[in-house]
Structures are given as C-alpha cells and as structure tokens.
Amino acid sequence: MADADDVRRLALALPHVVEIDSAGFDFRVANKGFVWSYPERLPGRPRVIRTDVAVLYVGDEAEKQALLLGEPERFFTTPAYDGMPLVMLRLAQVDADRLAELVTDAWRMRAPDELAAELPETA
C-alpha cells in the first residue's frame, strides 16, 4: 500500500526533478508535470486536493485505456481528463514496487531525451 510519502520519495530520487509548491504533491522534469495530487472537483463544491490519488502521465490514449480497462480497481479517469494522456491512481491499491515503475515511466515520457539518458533502463 503506497502513499503520498512514497510518491515524493520516488519522484525526488529521479534526475532533475523539481517539486512545485502545492497543497499536495506536484513533480516536474524540464518544466513538465509527470505526477501530482488529484485535484478533485465535485459539482457545487470547492476543489479538494487528494493526496491519496496520484495523477500520472501515461504517454498516449492506448496506454491510458489499457490501464483503465486492465486494472479498474487501481486506475480511473474523469471527464475533465478526456483526451489527455493522464490517469488517476488510487495509491492504496499499489505497492511501492509498482508505484516506482509507474512514476519512473511517467518521468521517462516527460523528460527530454538527454535527461532520460541519465537514468539506466533498469531503474
């Protein structure tokens, strides 16, 4: 079972990551977000930053759909994210190893090639 502290530890261990000041967590590489707290918006209510849910960059719609359909207990989306290569991850539904894989993959997709080359493929 992972949590926001695990996200922070894993993201900050990657090269050239910057944490943006936020009510939850928000990590960027080369000014591009790759994982952040879910800003839940419910009709008629103020936005709530959910640190138990991470928004992850996944690269493309095919990967997004594969995660949503293959692991619906872990991943979800909302209409606000339609057409965007982003999924929401229920942190309590993953272990630290799987979270490390997801965060690292998101970082790789957002990092410029010269930065991504600094991280060995096995990391």
From TrEMBL:
The record's InterPro entries line, in alphabetical order, gives: YjbR/MT2646/Rv2570-like
Which Pfam family, an example, fits this chain? YjbR
Q: Which domain of life is it from?
A: Bacteria
Q: What is this protein identified as? A: MmcQ/YjbR family DNA-binding protein
Task: Identify the species of origin.
Answer: Catellatospora bangladeshensis
Taxonomy of origin reads:
Bacteria, Bacillati, Actinomycetota, Actinomycetes, Micromonosporales
